[in-house]
Structure formats: C-alpha cells, structure tokens
C-alpha cells in the first residue's frame, strides 16, 4: 500500500470584526440607495397625480391647451351654430345684411329662454335653399374641426321652404356632411334629425319616413332628437320616437326638464330610457324624476353656457353638472348653440367645466370616453372609432 497524504478540509476563516463592520456598511449604503431610488419614483408619481388634481392652469394658457385637446360634440344644433363669418359667406359678403342678421341672432347678455327661440328665425330665413344650407353645414363642421373636435353629431330640424321639402332638406344636409368628411378625414361626422314638440304626428311621421329612406342610402343619419319649446308636452310624438328606435335603429336623445316648470310628459319620456338626455337642467330638483333618470343608464348632455344665457342659472358653477357627476351619471360637455351664445365654442365649454368643477385630466378622459361610448355611431357600429379612442387615451389630437 502506498503512502496517502491525508488532505485536511480547509475551514473558512472567521470574519474579523473589522471586515464585518465594512460589509455591513456596504450593505447599508446599497439599501439606502435602493430606498432613495424607490422614494424618488414614488415622489414622481405623486407629483404627476398632484399636477392632474390641480389642473387646469391659468387663463389664457388653459384655453390654448383646450383648443389642442381632443373633444367630442354630441349636442350641436346646426341653425344655432352659425358664426358671423359663415353668415357673411351665405349672404355673399353683403356686410350690412350680415351685420343685421348677426345682431338679431347672436346674444350679448342672458335673456329668457322663450326669447332665445326667436333668434333662430334670423338665420332660418337665409337657410331656405340648398346652396345656403350646404355652406352652413360645411363651414360649421370646419369650425368644429379647427376647434379640436374629433367626433361630431350635428342635429337639425327638417323644414319646408319654397325650394325644399323635408326630403330635399335632409338629402342636402347629408350630402354636405359627406363632402365635409372628405375635407376633414380625421373627424367622424354624423347627423341627428330633430323633431319639434309642436309638430303633429303626421308631420313627424313624414319626416321619419324620409329619414329612413336617406338613412338606407348613406351612412350619415344615426339618431333622432326631440326638442323645441320646453313648455309643451310631446305625447303625440312618443310613438314616433319608439318607431325610430325599434324599426329604424336610430339612437334617441330628448331635451328634457329644461325649465323649472316641467311638462307632464317628462316621466313618459324618461321611462322610454332614451340613450341620452339633452340638458336635463332641473331633473335633480324633482326627487321622483331624479330617481328615474339616475336608474335609466342614459348619458346627460350638459351645455353650460346655454344654460347661463337662457337664465336657467346665473353662473356656470350653479350647473347641475356637479350633482350628476358625483352620482356617477355619464356626462358629455356640449355647446348647444355656439353661434347664438358668446364664448361658447367647444374648447371654451370644456375649459369652463374644468375650471368650475376642478376636473383632472383623468376626469376629462372619462367624460370623453363616456361621450364616445354613448355616441350613436358607436351604439350602432356605424364606423371604427378606435383611432379617436386612442387620441382620447393619449390626450392628443395627433
């Protein structure tokens, strides 16, 4: 047997007190650096949230921001949305005539709602032919586009004139919208046909008939609206709205509770569960109606400047906006009649809402996404809205 050297296992050297102290110091420094990094990350996130919570900034910087902010418009009346520039173009730049029309059309101070309805007549007299109607539609859409509107539902009440019947009126507006779509390909533009509360059942059904015919021929008409004098009941039109929804697949929106004295058809209209409610200014003042509306899953179209200039309330902060937002009701910010009411562009309406009710960027995004969700083009899958949804998510027009 050969001699074998016994190899002894090497025992680890015991760490000296000095080495242990240095190691602990290195670990403490590394932990401190990691904690500092995490603290900085948390602080940065808190700063972002604080910035959003204190939004908006100060005027006029804010208004410039809102003009570049993506916006949705669900409640805009064509005959209430004409700018002085559009009116001038319609009358072929006859400045004296244009000035006279604007003076009878555009408000400078709040007046009773009953008197506001007379303002529409100033432009209806120049929208009595297809050429003028076409200009009104195309120029109004261009102004919404320039104001950062990505999705627009324009609404109008068909009228009979010396050169147009209801069908020709509807066709003229639809053709103008199709033309505007080519001029503004980044926008989605659709039409809502409005019924007036003072209409007879026969007139309303005639308009619905032509609406259905043109609807089949073009992808433009997506909804039907009930509007007009808010003091009048519209029982005679309830069946027409039902048929529009049931057999024509149209979205339904209705002007409801615009005045403190609420007509007796209001409960019936709410029980129809319209997709959206226009104004709804005084619904919250009636417990029964507030409960019915709160359970209806309808979106509320809020028009802040309109409510101020029709003396529904005397300041934007008195708006019913906060009441319904607090209760989780989906809301859209709308202009109503930007041509009649001063400082009521869509950007200005968004700014007023953000300023008065301290809306954050997340609030604005939710309002926009709710508006897009309740748009009639989305409800009836009339177009792809994914690109607009992306821009809303990113708070950008690009």
Descriptive notes:
By secondary structure, the protein is an alpha/beta fold. The protein has one domain: Metal-dependent hydrolases (TIM Barrel), CATH 3.20.20. 50% of the residues lie in helices and 12% in strands. An eight-stranded parallel sheet has the order 1-2-3-4-5-6-7-8. It is elongated. It catalyses: N(6)-methyl-AMP + H2O + H(+) = IMP + methylamine. GO terms for molecular function: adenosine deaminase activity; metal ion binding.
Q: How are the secondary structure elements laid out?
A:
Blueprint: H1 17-54, H2 61-67, E1 71-77, H3 84-90, H4 95-105, H5 113-119, H6 121-124, H7 130-146, E2 149-156, H8 166-183, E3 188-196, H9 201-217, E4 221-227, H10 238-248, E5 251-256, H11 266-271, E6 276-279, H12 287-294, E7 299-302, H13 304-309, H14 321-326, E8 331-333, H15 346-356, H16 361-373, H17 376-379, H18 386-394
Parallel strand pairs: 1-2, 2-3, 3-4, 4-5, 5-6, 6-7, 7-8
Helix pairs in contact: 2-15, 3-7, 7-8, 8-9
Low-confidence blocks of residues: 1-9, 49-60
The CATH architecture would be: Alpha-Beta Barrel
Q: What is the N-to-C succession of helices and strands?
A: HHEHHHHHEHEHEHEHEHEHHEHHHH
If strands are numbered along the chain, what order do they take across the biggest sheet?
1-2-3-4-5-6-7-8
Number of DSSP E strands:
8
What is the overall shape? elongated
Question: In terms of structural class, how would the helical and strand content be classed?
Answer: alpha/beta
Could you give me the name of the CATH homologous superfamily?
Metal-dependent hydrolases
**Tally of individual domains:** 1
CATH topology, what is it called?
A: TIM Barrel
Major beta-sheet overview: 8 strands, parallel
The number of helical elements comes to: 18
The CA-CA distance between the termini, in Å, is: 89 Å
CATH top level label? Alpha Beta
CA radius of gyration is 29 Å
| DSSP helix fraction | 40-55%
Mean pLDDT value: 89
Strand content: 5-15%
